[in-house]
Amino acid sequence: MNQKTTPSNPRRRLIDSIDRFTELGGRSVAWLTLLMVLLTFIIVVLRYGFDSGWIALQESVTWLHATVFMIGASYALKRDSHVRVDIFYQKFSPRGRALVDLLGSLLLLLPVCLFIFLASWNYVLEAWKIAESSAETGGLPGLYLLKSLLLIMTSLLILQALAHSLRAWLILRGDKDSIQ
What we know:
Elements: H1 10-50, H2 55-78, H3 94-129, H4 143-172
Helix pairs in contact: 1-2, 1-4, 2-4, 3-4
């Protein structure tokens, strides 16, 4: 086995494990966008072609969109596809980028994610306690599942931010295998 597939460094193995998990989640929910397009097409055909429709079908598109966005956030971070003002970042050396990534994760991303997680905890818990459903007649049951995405998203982002920070730390320490 080569160094790339089984790194001896336990930190590197942790980073790779988190990255694989995030990659799997992101690629999996990406398929939901196709389902959203198909459902939207069906909704339009039903509405304008048959003057018919169902609230649950319309809500399902919103649920799918939320799922793609919430689960895809950590995937975007992993792929470096997130929004960043990189006027200076793109000109930095790998070590300079690593420093920005480390400080950004530790001082901005992790605190914001922890805040959102803690602020959402009771909101989600209350939804579960009452088994909250859609307020719309004919809407989807299980709204508490949708609200749970707040906790899932922040957990996945925290996990990916830890991998991101650890990777940056290894780069700053001079670990050449960490530069991707």
